[in-house]
Amino acid sequence: MSNKDLFTLEIIRNGLITANEEMFYAFGRTAMSPVIYEVLDYAVGITDSKGELIAQAPGVPGFSGVLDFVAREVIEKWGEDMKAGDVYALNVPYNSGTHLNDVTLAMPVFYKGELLSLILNKGHWSEVGGMHFGSWTSDSTDIYQEGLMLPNVRLYVEGKPNRDVIDIILENSRLPKHTLGDMEAQVASMKVAARRIEKLIEKYGFESVKYAMEKIIEDGVKLALVNIRKLPKGVFVAEDYVDDDGLSDEPVYVRVKVTITDNEFVADFTGSGTARGSIASPFAATVSGVRETYMAVTDPHVHLNGGYFRPLKVIAPEGSVFHPVKPAPTSTYWESMAYSTDLVWKALAPHVPDKLTAGHFLSILATILGGVDDRTREPFAIVEPQPGGWGAGYDMDGESGLVACGDGETYIASNEVYEKHMPILVERFCLNVESGTGHGKHRGGFGVIKDYRVLCSEAYFTVSIGRNKFPPWGVDGGTNGTSNYCVIFKQGEEPRVVRKVAAVRLTRGDLVSLRSGGGGGWGDPLDRDPELVRMDVKNEYISIKDAREIYGVVIDPGTLTIRWEETKKLREEMRGRRKK
User: Fold this and answer.
1) Percent above pLDDT 90 for the chain
2) Backbone angles phi, psi at 328, to 5 degrees
3) Given this model, what pLDDT does residue 303 score?
4) Can you say whether the dihedral through the CA atoms of 168, 172, 177, 179 is positive or negative?
5) Which residue, of 173, 298, 300, 312, has the fewest CB within 10 Å?
6) Does 565 score more than 90 pLDDT?
């Protein structure tokens, strides 16, 4: 292929993207665990021989952003010892990971002995051992309590399963059938991508595919610089607090300084606090979190590659909540990783209102409900994120019932699938209008309420919830959103409001109610279109009282029509009181 053959370049580029997409769907269709086949809690990608990301399919953003870190770790350790058919397994968080449940498999692709690329698949395994059912937990004090570590080991050797390593994995899992099924589905899906790359080589030649990869990186750098130069230049600062340090109720101060020039986008987290518990975000996860907002403000629709990320720099001192070191636990890393996204978002939202909204509920509200099914004597586990309310934009209301930014492409799990296969009943799943949302010219979206009733003799419940003490932020006069929380209803006991518990024992008839908050508002509530306020009252999102007291809109309780003269007078009075 000549350097000027742009048509062939585009065909190869899209062929690599398609290879990723086929891998993505093959994994989702063949995995054993609902967190994979229902929630889609995974991500896939392809790098070049140097570990530079070439292409990826839509997946969990928090996973997608660490794949090149994994590739470089594999290349650094194995180098010339890599063989065709090898598959490497990694989940140790400090260099390239997140937490131990998120296992990345890497498969090299060779042509006549020369390494062309690495295929990567990072998925959430439901069980990898550790101190509590489901492995991740909110009460761990070091990494050794959180499960089995796979330090860049060969899972397959030249195409053959490494039975010794696989036996160790299965012996350390409380759900060995699911773990084995998910692992084999990962490998099978990666083989699909490998075959697609081999077909590209057969059709266009090895040198052409290799050149196309180089050109993808080169073009990525150029496009990133074009888009960065469209952004406002300067230094932008934001600060906030994570609810707690993982073990106590003491909040953790976090801050970022974003510096944008014509050639760089720098996010510096120097000055942020430390965490004793499992909330710390590994550095690769922190970078991945920043990449989310970087993409949002530059071009959220661009096909990602390592070149596009090259102008982005992330600084996070070792030992901070954004860069833990061994043996720090990272089991609920998302509690801090989410802030690496949100702080940059908060710093830039007022300056690029056409790109970013007000703050959203942010927390994954990660949930484990598991035990042994009395009917089958088989273990079961619900492992899932929960949706919530997003912030308002400068020209729109926030979205309701969406997963948080860090979970991106994940789905809300099917209640019917859980009820069919597990001894639980989903008694309620609705918008959380009880807690409300952030108000403004445009209001935030609403969170959800999801109630699980236990139908077996015993089960254990773990949850980690952020943005409970410090709700989502509003912009330009919009009010803050509402908090996330959970209520545990145990028979014979008073309801217990919690934000973080580990392995709470439940019995038949007990219920847990997960309640996500609403997003922040944008603009002055008194500037909201009265007709929109009336529709919110009609839809039972807000009360007639709230319409009057928050928005200055007087609604007739009988006809639900607007009393325009009273509304005009009330709004003038409210603005006057505010000036005084």
Assistant:
1) 84
2) -60, 140
3) 84
4) negative
5) 300
6) yes
The Cα angle at residue 48 between residues 224 and 190, in degrees rounded to 5: 115
- In whole angstroms, what is the distance from residue 483 CA to residue 208 CA? 53
Classify burial at 240, counting beta carbons within 10 Å of its beta carbon; exposed 0-12, middle 13-18, buried 19 or more. buried
Helix ranges (DSSP H) in 484-529: none
* pLDDT at res. 412: 82
Q: Are 217 and 55 in contact (CB under 8 A)?
A: no
Question: Is residue 447 a contact partner of residue 472, using CB atoms and an 8 Å limit?
Answer: no
* 65: amino acid identity, one letter: G
Q: Are strands 312-315 and 265-268 parallel, antiparallel or unpaired?
A: parallel
**What is the chain's Cα-based Rg?**
25
Return the bridge partners of 239, or none.
255
Q: What is the DSSP string of 227-263?
A: HHTTSPPEEEEEEEEES--SSSS--EEEEEEEEE-SS
Q: Identity (one letter) of the amino acid at 545?
A: K
Residues 6+ apart with CB under 8 A from 136: 99, 100, 101, 130, 146, 147, 278, 331, 332, 366, 368, 462, 464
pLDDT of residue 384: 83
Report yes or no: 428 and 510 within 8 Å, Cβ to Cβ: no
pLDDT tens digits, one per residue of 165-196: 999 999 999 999 999 999 999 999 999 999 99
Question: Which 3 state secondary structure label does DSSP give 558?
Answer: coil
Rounded Cα gap, residues 410 and 38, in angstroms: 8
- Give tens-digit pLDDT for 254-311: 999 999 999 999 999 999 999 999 999 999 999 999 999 999 999 998 888 999 999 9
Helix (H) or strand (E) holding 163: helix 163-171
Task: Extract the tokens encoding 389.
Answer: 């309310």
